């Protein structure tokens, strides 16, 4: 997932960024409400993690502003304000979930999976493509019943391809989905990642599911011929 964290506490923001990056997510961070509004409106995020007590506009105002401009990206409030009235205010502002700091990263990830499954694009618990099964909840991949060990980034790439099975996924889409703004578009990191993924999910099973569509990107094909 590509995530935006908006929090004016640098220690909290850095902790969340590191933890979520290690889990395979692409994470951008801002420290005030104005930047949060601009970024969330300009970039296609899977979810936004909003602190409430930020320099104006605060988290509630940011969320209301996004909804007013028909930006429906799921929002989770992460805040030290845990009173019922605050929770009600956050949800009424258009938030999808509300967590009180300090947060458990494992619980935060579970809530992220939950709200993105409920979003405009359905994200089922297990994604099936032919004889391949991808389970985002515990990052499990199986082919023909055999479990395949992947790195966090390999899993994120495979999940993106499988969720769009049969469709061409462009390199620019993958850059936005899997990396933050520090990504060097001139590098061949995507090609190298695809090669590693093929060596694990295709080659050992006599498949050629991950196709290169010249000049466009990649496609996970359900009709791939055995190699």
Task: Walk me through the structure.
The chain is an alpha/beta fold and 227 residues long. The protein has two domains: 116 residues, Response regulator (Rossmann fold, 3-Layer(aba) Sandwich), CATH 3.40.50.2300; 94 residues, Orthogonal Bundle (Arc Repressor Mutant, subunit A), CATH 1.10.10.10. Helix content is 39%, strand content 21%. It contains eight helices and twelve strands. Strands 2-1-3-4-5 form a five-stranded parallel beta sheet, sandwiched between helices. Strands 6-7-8-9 form a four-stranded antiparallel beta sheet, covered by helices on one side. A hairpin with a 2-residue loop joins strand 6 and strand 7. Helix 2 runs parallel beside helix 3 and helix 6 packs across helix 8. The longest helix is centred in the first third of the chain and has 13 residues. It is elongated and about 55 Å long. The model has no long low-confidence stretch (mean pLDDT 88).
Q: What would you say about this model in short?
A:
This protein has 227 residues and is α/β, with parallel strands linked by helices.
Number of strands: 12
CATH architecture of the largest domain: 3-Layer(aba) Sandwich
Largest sheet strand order: 2-1-3-4-5
| Proportion in helices | 25-40%
Number of domains: 2
Shape: elongated
Order of helices and strands: EHEHEHEHEHEEEEHEHHEE
CATH H-tier superfamily of the largest domain: Response regulator
